Sequence to fold (257 residues):
Amino acid sequence: MNVLYAGSLVDLMQSQLGPGFQAATRYSVAGFPGGSTGLANEIKAKVHRGDVFVSASPAVNDSLEGSANGGWVSWYATFATSPLVLGYNPKSHFAAQLRSRPWYDVITEPGFRVGRTDPATDPKGALTVQALSRTAAARHRPALKSVATETDTVFPEESLVGRLQAGQLDAGFFYRSEAVAAGIPTRPLTGVHLRATYTVTVLNEAPNPTGAAAFVRYLLGPAGRASLRKDGFSLVRPPALSGNGPPAALRSVIPTP
Fold:
């Protein structure tokens, strides 16, 4: 059973959901993480063939709906959210400043290394650019616009945590849930209220629709919700349905109107 999932869910999938689902069922799980927008493009291009798609943005699912987009998605369920935050390396020599000064002043200090993801392939990258641009305008900090356009600090979503932990970065823009899972201290983005909105769907023409339905039931059931709460997600209860409605096998966990 193959799950294509947002790169911000690497720890959740590899350490909790994947092993838990495999132990609870007869299915083995193969997963491929990446920026949600990039994954959607690869689904349309048939680069990856998956059973389940877990995205960090509802709009990404919209790009897979309808015959013009290949008809890969006909419904999805929103199940959790997580705010955008600034995560930092506690060993960075800027750490004390981040704890005592506004984040938007510290990240423009000479020598500060802040990582982000690509807005073209990852919704978090797009939210990061929004956060920097809005704060630059509201706080009269034009230097933040440069941070939003630099390209040498753009990294794949699934590698950003590791780069921060390895000391290659002083800070990075993360969702709070992935920072909680990795034990990364964070600062809220004062004045900015942006967040990931996580969705799940079974892709049309999924090679293993039965296994896919079992995974969605696990994710949205008690064990999956417990893992989500552990990593600091805010749960959407009940999951909010969009589209034509899930298969009958999922109506116990995804209420239909």
